[in-house]
Amino acid sequence: MLGLTILGCNSAVPSFGRNPTAQVLQTQKENFLIDCGEGTQMQMAKWNIRRSKVTRIFISHLHGDHYFGLIGLINSMSLLNRTQDLHLYGPKELEEIIGIQMRVANSHLSFKLFFHPILEEGILVDDNSMTISTFNVKHRIECRGFLFREKKKPRSVNGEQVRAYGIPVSFYEKLQEGQDYTNKEGTVIPNEVLTRPGIRAKSYAYCADTVYDETIIDKVRGVDLLYHETTYLKANEDRAQMHFHSTTTQAATIAQKAEVKKLIIGHFSSRYEKLDEFLIETRSVFKDSVLAQEGTCYKI
Amino acid sequence: MLGLTILGCNSAVPSFGRNPTAQVLQTQKENFLIDCGEGTQMQMAKWNIRRSKVTRIFISHLHGDHYFGLIGLINSMSLLNRTQDLHLYGPKELEEIIGIQMRVANSHLSFKLFFHPILEEGILVDDNSMTISTFNVKHRIECRGFLFREKKKPRSVNGEQVRAYGIPVSFYEKLQEGQDYTNKEGTVIPNEVLTRPGIRAKSYAYCADTVYDETIIDKVRGVDLLYHETTYLKANEDRAQMHFHSTTTQAATIAQKAEVKKLIIGHFSSRYEKLDEFLIETRSVFKDSVLAQEGTCYKI
C-alpha cells in the first residue's frame, strides 16, 4: 500500500498559509520526496514525516517553488549526521546549484548523495518493490512528471490450508510465486487452494506544472491516483495557457480520458484564498477528485 | 525610533517550531532585512512585515541557516511585480548563487537588484537618516556583523516660543540646525529658547555567528541594542569554541564590556527545547538582556 502526504499545495508565492509544492509518497519501508519547495523541511517536521526514511528525492523542474527547499533539507540531513545514501533525480543543473552552495559554506555532506540527472523519458528506478519512471510534460521550462508503480505482490500462503494438505515449509516460496503442489501420491493441489491473491500493486502518477497536454493521457493511463496541477479555475483558461499551467476542468479531463481511479488536484494560484470552487469544477468533469490539502495523507 | 522584529532565532536546523536566523530592523520609512534563513518570506507574512518596505538586505555569511531563504524572497518579490530598487549586501559569492538560480528558471527580476559585495570592514550606507557599517567577526567562514546608527535628529521648533518672539518661518530650518536668532534690534534669542532637543539618534549592532572575540567590544561600544549570538549554554563553552560560536555568558561579557544599553540573544542550538536557562545565565552577567523571540518587536 502507498500513502501520499501533501506538504505544500500552493503555486509560486506562498499564500494564505499554503506552502510551495512538496509531497511524500510513502511505502512501508521508505519515503519518496517529490519536489521540495521552500520550507519543506519545516513541513516534514510539522507533519511527522521522517527525514531519515527519505531514500529518493525527485525534482520536476527548476522553478523555485519546486526546489528552493532542497538545499536546506540536504544541509539539515547532514547536520543531523545522516549516514544512509540519498538519491536525487532532477534537471542536470541541480548538481551545480547544490555544489556551489556547499562550497561557499565549506561544508561536506555526512552521507553519500547520488545525483541522477534526468536527461530523457524512461525508467529511473527498478528494484524489487517498485518501478519509477519519468515522462515529459509541457511547461515554460523543461519539466517532468513521475510515475510510481509497485511491483506485483506475491500471493500469500493460506496457513490453514497448507497445514490441512501437509505442504512442507520449503515449498512456500514456490506457492507464493503461483506454483501448484504435487504430493507423494501424484495428486496436484491447485495453487488457488493453498494461497490467497497478493495485495494488488498500486500506482501513482505526478504531473508537475504543465499546460493541458493530451500526450499525458497514455502515460498515466489507469493509475490508482493521479496528481495533476490546477493552478487556475476554468474561467482563467487563457491565463493558464499563457503561463503553461492547467485549469480544474483540464486536469479532470486528463483524469477522465486516462481512466484513472482517483484524481488529486493542487498547485493553486495565490489569487485564490478559498478552494471550494476548485473541487466543484473538477468534480463536474471527474467525480472522484480531491483537493491536495497540506498534512493530509491520501491512501492509495 | 527603531524597532527590531525577530523572524528566526534558531541555529542550523529548524527545531521546536523555531526558524533559522532572520530579523528586520524597522525605521519609519523602510525595513532592513538582516540575514534570511529558509522560510523568511513565510515568517514575514505571518508577522505582517511588508516585503515592499524592504529596501536593503544584509547577509552576514554563507552558512545556509543565514541565507537559504533569500532566493525565495527575491523570487516572490518579482512574481508580485515589485518595481522599487533592492540593495543586497553580502559575501561576493552570493551574486553567482542568485544568478545561476535565476538562469535555470529562465527568469528575470521585475525590479533592479543592486548587489554590493562586502569585501572589507567599513561603511555600506550613508544617507540622510542612517549610517550602516560592517565589521568582521570570527567564524568558521568569512562572517560579518552590521552596525546601524541613526543620524543625529534635528532640534524641533517650539511653536509657542517662535510665535511669541515673532521668528520668520524662513528661519525655522536654521533653528533646527541649532542657530540662535538675532532680531532687528540686535537682540540674540538663544536657540535653546526657541527649540526642543531632537529625538536621540539610536543605534543597533548585529553580531552574527561568532566565537567569543573581544575585538568586537570597541566596534559595538555604547549601542542602544546589541544582538549577540548565544548558540550554547555556559556548560558547552568548549563546544562553542570548537564550532566558532558563543555562549550566554560570553555574549553577556561582550555586552558588559562594550557598555551597551541592552542585549538581545539568539541563534539557539537545536539541542535546547526550553530557553529559560539562556536568559538566566545571560542576566547573571548582564542584567538588561532579553531572548530573541519570533514575532516580537523590540523597540530601540
Question: Would you spell out the secondary-structure blueprint of this structure?
Answer:
Two copies of one chain form a homodimer.
Chain A: E1 3-8, E2 22-26, E3 31-36, H1 40-46, E4 54-58, H2 70-79, E5 86-90, H3 94-104, E6 113-117, E7 122-126, E8 130-137, E9 143-150, E10 156-157, H4 159-164, H5 172-177, E11 181-182, E12 188-189, H6 191-194, E13 195-196, E14 203-207, H7 215-220, E15 225-229, H8 237-242, H9 248-257, E16 262-266, H10 276-285, E17 289-291, E18 297-299
Parallel strand pairs in A: 3-4, 4-5, 5-6, 14-15, 15-16, 16-17
Antiparallel strand pairs in A: 1-2, 1-18, 2-3, 7-8, 8-9, 9-14, 10-13, 11-12
CATH topology heading of the largest domain in chain A: Metallo-beta-lactamase, Chain A
Question: Span between N and C termini of chain A?
Answer: 6 Å
Q: Indicate the structural class of chain A.
A: alpha/beta
Give, in spatial order, the strands making up the sheet with the most strands of chain A. 6-5-4-3-2-1-18
Percent range of helical residues of chain A: 25-40%
